[in-house]
Amino acid sequence: MPPNQSETNRQRETPGGTERWYQDMVKRLGSGKGSKTLQSEIGEFTGSAQVGSMYVFSYDPKLADVLPYYDTVPVVVPFRIVSDGFYGLNFHYLSPMLRTALLDKMIDLTTSQPLTNTSRMSLTWRLLNNASRFPGVNTSVKRYLYSQMGSRLLKVYPKDWRKTILLPIDNFEKSSRTIVFRNSRSKI
């Protein structure tokens, strides 16, 4: 049976082919196009966040003009829900090596092992604020408002958490990822 078009695009043998495919999918996420493709591959869409799950979405910060830089396509695990949004950890503010180390420690706090589609991380700020146990947390905590989201939340299936934090979909405005990683590393 021949592969479908999205499988063909993901399997391109050209350098950066996979990266371009994911960037394209994230752009479609924000525009509302291609949602069935993303939903079937890495997660499902939802209108609100849940503590301990992972989400990808399009975002335009309310205070963008005063922020030194910000990520418009965050990969976030919320740890506190508030009436108009949530506080969460955006993995994109950490280098890939630090992301992986942090996620591995957080996965130890999941509600079920092995991971299932209903698994969540049992997170509180009190627990996360332990810098010796979770280095890098302080640089990746951000507040997200539902009113500033440019797309629905894509709830990532737990089996895809590790892959998702390493996808090349970060999109920093006003700075490069190299500078963001350097600044984050200096605060750890």
Radius of gyration: 16 Å
Describe the global form: globular
Number of structural domains: 1
Biggest beta sheet attributes: 6 strands, antiparallel
| SSE run | HHHEEEEEHHHEEHEH
Q: In whole angstroms, how far apart are the ends?
A: 50 Å
Low-confidence residue ranges: 1-16
Count of helical regions: 8
The average pLDDT value, as a whole number, equals: 82
Strand order of the largest sheet: 1-7-2-4-5-6
Strand tally: 8
Structural class: alpha+beta
Q: How would you describe the oligomerization state of the chains in this entry? A: single chain
Describe this structure in words.
With 188 residues, this protein is of the alpha+beta class. It has one domain (5-186). Helix content is 34%, strand content 18%. The chain contains 8 helices and 8 strands. It has helices spanning 5-10, 17-31, 35-41, 96-107, 125-128, 137-140, 161-166, 177-186; strands at residues 43-46, 54-56, 70-71, 75-82, 85-90, 141-145, 153-156, 172-173. The strands form 2 sheets. The chain has a 6-stranded antiparallel beta sheet. Strand 4 and strand 5 (85-90) form a beta hairpin. It starts with a helix and ends with a helix. Mean pLDDT is 82; it is low at 1-16.
